[in-house]
Amino acid sequence: MKLNIFAKLFMAILVATMAMTVFMVIFTNWSVRQGFADYQHQDELDKLNQLAEVLAETYAHQGNWDFLLNEPANWRAALTQVGEGRSLGRLPGNDEPFARVGQALSLRSFGLRIRLLDLQENIIAGMAGHAAEFERRPVTLAGQTIGWLELRRHKPQNSEQASRFMEQQVRNIYLIALFAAGVSLLIAVILVRHLLRPVKHLTEGAQALSRGNFNTLIQVKAGDELGQLAHHFNQLSHSLQRNQTLRTQWIADISHELRTPIAILRSEIEAMLDGIRKPTLERISSLHHDVLALGKLVDDLYQLSLSDAGELELPDEDVDLCTVLQDALEAAETRLQEKSLQLGRPACDHPLIIRGDGKRLFQLFSNLLENSYRYTDPGGRVVVGIHSTPDNKQAVITLEDSAPGVPDEALPRLFERLFRVDKSRSRLMGGSGLGLSISRNIVEAHGGKITAVHSRLGGLLLRMSFPLRTPSSSSNAD
């Protein structure tokens, strides 16, 4: 069975919580028991120090340890003063050495796990055993050591009160762990649902996009990775909606552009067939001109579709921009002279080499010169310039013409498909509204950039930049 992301996250948090809870229970249980043992041992060491003070005070009056050797009851009396007299249990008889009492009785009581040694380390009172098993404290009088008290550390006393205390602490640990595990699981459920809420919205949004609902947006409330993903999703939605709008407009514009010349051809041909108009050479020539315009529009659409599909053929070869530009100017000069347009040609003293396709670049420059021919008033000027940037990394080509100019609001849209500043004049001049779009695609396919601004001559200035393959040693002026 495949688990969804909710189950996976919940199981991951559950396993981590359980592992931490088990570790906490084990560690806390050990810590409580160890801490309780340390507490008991420290309490016994405090009593040992108190007992040393009691014995030193008695020693000061007696002058030796005979009061313990001769009267074992004095040892019980000393322990009684520190609250441990009862821990000795039954006192031995006169025929039983007192030093062996600790071996005969239980070793759990404090009083049965201590002993007193003199300076020669002879046992005066208490249990026998190896010295390594005891923890020693000196018995001092006036700064001088008069004997040693030793305590044998033992496991915590399992008295009824101590056992009850430990059982209560362990029970509390288990209850706390169980409560913590329950709270953790509840928080895990809430947290997983909170984390997966944006994912659910993204899934629903993606399903809506797949159904063609491109106006779907997701509210971005977080600044984390999921919030960034939602932001990118909204950008994708905007792009798809915009592309859909542009595609719809594009189809409508193409239909309109094709319908107009076809309607003109149809009406002219039907008029000739009906005998309304005679098929004179002049009328046939007009029809031929309309067919050529329609064919150019179809060719432009085909070129644009190749560019959009990334299938615009660009051989990877060295191309001299100066040579291609000069060839395009030579080809366009005669046509520009038909409208008495003065052509300002650049001086290309040094080659400017880029990687690309010379035929496409020739098409680019021819399109731009043809655009200037169509939309520049007779008797105007067309000035072309080419130079390299100071760092010799870019080749810059400028083409500007004289009046009429382009309105400010139209400048950003000049490279849009089928956009015309003056539609009636554009159709009269035979323009399809695709020339600048194709030109931009050719420039960008060569890794360049094209922009349009107002010209100082009163018309339009187009500026193109291309990355140079071999930096030129000098700049070329206009």
Keywords:
478 residues, alpha+beta, Helix Hairpins, Heat Shock Protein 90, 3 domains, 4-stranded antiparallel sheet, elongated, disordered C terminus
Summarize the structure.
With 478 residues, the chain is of the alpha+beta class.
CATH class of the largest domain: Alpha Beta
| CATH architecture field of the largest domain | 2-Layer Sandwich
Number of helices: 11
Report the end-to-end length measured between terminal Cα atoms: 74 Å
Question: Taking strands numbered 1, 2, ... along the chain, how are they ordered across the largest sheet?
Answer: 6-8-9-11-10
Q: Please give the share of residues in helix.
A: 40-55%
Shape, principal axes of CA atoms: elongated
Weakly predicted, low-confidence segments? 90-107, 424-430, 471-478
Query: Average pLDDT, to the nearest integer?
Result: 77
Strand content: 5-15%
Count of structural domains: 3
CATH superfamily of the largest domain: Histidine kinase-like ATPase, C-terminal domain
Largest sheet: 5 strands, mixed
> Would you report the number of β strands?
11
From the 3D structure, determine the CATH topology of the largest domain: Heat Shock Protein 90
Using only C-alpha atoms, the radius of gyration works out to: 52 Å
Based on helices, strands and strand pairing, what is the structural class? alpha+beta
Order of helices and strands: HHHHEEEEHHHEHEEHEEHHEE
